[in-house]
Design a protein that fits this description.
With 319 residues, this protein is mostly helical. The protein has a domain of 219 residues. Helices cover 75% and strands 1% of the residues. The chain is globular. The two termini are 16 Å apart. The C terminus is likely disordered.
Length: 319
């Protein structure tokens, strides 16, 4: 085992570890349901597709979050970027609903990028402030009450309908995943992200326009949050306050679990995909077990900490 880990590339280790945890979670969930219900819904294609459908919203948010974390930054404005995009899309309605959601996300990402790249304000502080501003604007927009706006038919189709037996939301997630993966590995912008995340000063001296790279990363994160907001509103058939709150920590966890270094410069998108699947399956198994919310939070956090500790140990072994 030690020799196998030693021969493996550092960026591949978290991916295989995550896959191992996915297998363990599936085994535990399947064993529990077989012993209590006499069946194994976790192995049912229909059930798995349903879980991936709900996980697609988290997956899209995590895709944008990964791009920012690769720079050693973080985007804490995601919850209310998602909420604002959903609310404004539902309020505008019609054929302009989706462009509105995307525009809101891009605008917020642009503000975040300028604040971090040009004003040199730490991303954690600036994006948290932007999140608070967005929350205030949406409360003012709705008067403090839940809006009555409904999702458009296109939003409902993209989030809740099926094409060839597969939920449409999974297709959207797949499209976003392909775009992000290709951008990171096949474009000069993606290579600039990795270079800037490794050492910004060296990247700048080599001719990379690092400030524009930072702005582009935050715009990507905002756009992903906007897309996720429109889909979530379509899935719920409405937009409501705080609908993005439950996505922030799981998105960060999925990225880190997937092997993206929190200080930037290292990470593969396939790891983020597996991290999202791990979190979705973990939540599903805990729900099947009817675990109290307090217990769910303890187990959820414990799995994340255990995996991160394991990463640290494997790095020490190979150093």
């Amino acid at each position: 085992m030690k020799n196998w880990l030693a021969r493996m590339k550092p960026e591949d280790k978290p991916i295989w570890i995550s896959l191992g945890f996915v297998a363990v979670i599936l085994a535990i969930g399947t064993g529990y349901t077989l012993s209590t219900q006499g069946s194994a819904p976790l192995l049912s294609p229909t059930y798995l597709l349903q879980q991936l459908q709900t996980g697609s919203f988290l997956g899209i948010v995590a895709a944008g979050m990964m791009v920012v974390i690769l720079l050693g930054n973080i985007d804490l404005s995601v919850p209310w970027t998602l909420t604002a995009a959903a609310m404004m899309a539902a309020a505008v309605g019609g054929p302009m609903a989706l462009p509105t959601a995307l525009a809101v996300g891009i605008l917020v990402g642009l503000v975040n990028g300028i604040g971090v790249a040009y004003l040199r304000i730490p991303s954690m502080i600036f994006t948290l402030g932007v999140d608070s501003v967005l929350r205030g604007l949406m409360v003012a927009h709705t008067g403090g009450f839940a809006p009555q706006d409904q999702a458009t038919p296109l939003m409902r189709f993209l989030a809740a309908d099926h094409v060839l037996g597969i939920p449409s939301a999974i297709y959207v997630w797949a499209a976003v995943s392909i775009l992000v993966a290709v951008m990171l590995r096949r474009t000069s912008f993606g290579r600039s992200i990795y270079a800037t995340g490794n050492r910004e000063a060296a990247a700048y001296l080599s001719g990379i326009r690092t400030r524009l790279v930072v702005v582009g990363a935050f715009v990507t994160s905002g756009a992903c949050a906007g897309i996720a907001g429109a889909l979530l509103a379509g899935y719920s058939n409405k937009a409501y306050q705080g609908m993005g709150n439950e996505f922030l920590l799981p998105a960060i966890a999925a990225v880190v679990i997937g092997g993206t270094r929190i200080l930037g410069g290292q990470g593969r998108y396939v790891g983020t995909l597996i991290g999202v699947i791990l979190i979705v399956l973990l939540k599903s198994v805990l729900s099947i077990m009817q675990m109290p919310e307090a217990g769910r939070q303890v187990i959820y956090g414990g799995v994340i900490i255990t995996m991160l500790l394991f990463y640290g140990r494997t790095q020490k072994i190979t150093s």
